[in-house]
Amino acid sequence: MTPLAMMADSAEVLARPDLGEHLLTPLELARAARFRLESSRTDFVAAHLLVRECAARLLGRPVAGLTLLQRCPDCARDDHGKPYVAELPDVRVSLSHGRGVVAAAAGLHPVGVDVEQPTRGTAIEVMERVLSAGELRRVREHAEPDRAFLRLWVRKEAMVKLGRTTLDTLTEVDLSELELDGSPLRGRYGDLHLLDWEDERRGAAVGVVSTQAPQVEQL
Fold first, then answer.
1. What integer best gives the mean pLDDT of the chain?
2. 214 cis-preceded (ω within 30 degrees of 0)
3. In the record, which residues are listed under signal peptide (predicted)?
4. Cβ(4)–Cβ(107) under 8 Å?
5. φ and ψ at 92, to 5 degrees?
6. Cβ of 164: how many Cβ atoms within 10 Å?
7. Is the pTM value of this prediction over 0.85?
């Protein structure tokens, strides 16, 4: 079964009556309430709802009744860590949110997703901490360095969500042979399938990584 990825505005998700906060667990609601900014709270809620919708579409079942949980493999706490759907133990899920946009992915094989809004003037020190030497050279040579960096960043962050690398070992992953221009873009890194695209309407970039080639659906 092909992994499925989705992206939407946070407001779009919350406008859907079937994706209301009534689907969230008490723990999710408590975590949402801790955000100081309402916009951050909205993004958190929307991402946790969209990933349920993504898992439901993957298997063709109603979204109601799906319980999203998290578990940290290091400390065994359930208020952070890798997400999973209690009722669908064979489904792997991933979610991401930031500044008004959210993304989610679901599949029967490992999958990771990341969504980011563009920024200007990314410090070279930041790039050096996450890019390989080849990637850094590609970014410096690109006509739009910030845009090129963003494409690489969502790919790498999705790989972190997948569990293939960590924030401390990102420079060991070299994606410098992959294309940086065009949308959507598909590529391979070893056994991994990479898909990323730029959403011009929302001004965001999305990266999806899985051991099978993913597809994208609209909310």
1. 93
2. no
3. none
4. yes
5. -100, 135
6. 19
7. yes
